[in-house]
Amino acid sequence: AGCEKETSSYMWIYIFLGNMLRGIGETPITPLGISYLDDFAKEENTPVYIASLHTIAMLGPMFGFILGSLCARLYVDIGYVDLESITITPQDSRWVGAWWLGFIIAGAVSLLAAIPFCFLPKSLEKPEGASHDKTSSGLLEERKATRKTHTSAKSKPKKWSVILKGKILSNPMYITLLFSSLLQFNSFVGFLTYKPKYLEQQYGQSASKSNFIIGLTSLPPIGLGIFIGGLVMKKYKMGITGAAKFAFTMSFFAYLLGLLHFFVGCENHVVAGLTVSYD
After folding, report:
1. pLDDT in tens, 236-266
2. Most buried pick, 77, 113, 131, 188, via CB within 10 A?
3. Mean per-residue pLDDT for 173-198?
4. How does pLDDT run across 134-162, given as a tens digit for each residue?
5. CA angle 187, 192, 198 (to 5 degrees)
6. What is the pTM of this model?
7. Taking phi first (over 0 means left), then psi (-120 to 50 degrees means alpha), and beta for anything else, what does residue 103 get?
8. DSSP-assigned beta bridge partners for residue 78
9. HEC per residue, 108-130
């Protein structure tokens, strides 16, 4: 009972709020950025631009893992204690790295990277040969007509629930893409969450080295695959149906290769009281 102690720190609330604000700031980049590229780029160049955007988005976590690896080598109280007085090393189970330092560095870089966005024009001139899809133009004309009607009648805008039920949730392609994205990110997040701990436990690596290995080996192939996929779509000028077939084929082969993980592994460590008796 003397060893039990309830936590009295509420710093997790600040971390929670900080991540929430970061998510709010990062969210518009994907929908608005892709729409911006799609509206003001040639039709054959759009897949490459979008693939480049997603490739950079995958390289970001890679540098994040490397930065986390460097920060994990520094003691958590760096700047507040004399580092020469610390007798433990990163290989010690009691070692806690400077996890908070990455937030400061990444936040400062994000703030500087956001400045050029303030100077982007609201609209650009349509390049020659830009996408003039009949469906898109029809939707735009319908939207303009609807807007004029609403303006003249001065009617109230529709509620989000009506828009979701009438347009979005009734679209089978959108629902299919939504569920497939949920499945992909669900597995991907679990992979990144538990793989560092697996490397630490099974191979005796430190937290810093585990993060470095994952950042260097796992994410670059994904970014490269996204970029190559954009080049393939540009070369063969795939439409929606062709892109869906291409994505299904690649996902199916990735699933088959993913099954090989079940045949790779190490024996569990012997833990007294858990896997064997204390005797």
Report:
1. 888 878 888 888 899 899 889 888 888 877 7
2. 131
3. 81
4. 444 444 555 555 555 555 444 556 666 66
5. 110
6. 0.54
7. alpha
8. 81
9. HHHHHHHHHHHHCCCCCCCCCCE
- Match 């189970």 to its residue by tokens: 93
59 touches 220 (CB < 8 A): yes
Question: Which one, of 87, 88, 82, lies nearest residue 206 by Cα?
Answer: 88
Q: Is 158 left (phi over 0), alpha (psi -120 to 50) or beta?
A: beta
What distances in angstroms separate CA 189 from CA 2, 84, 184, 193, 279, one per listed residue? 38, 38, 9, 6, 39
The Cα 219–Cα 209 span in angstroms is: 15
Residues 200, 4, 16: CA angle, nearest 5 degrees: 60
User: CA-based Rg of the chain, rounded to a whole angstrom?
Assistant: 25
Residue 257 near residue 250 (C-beta atoms within 8 A):
no
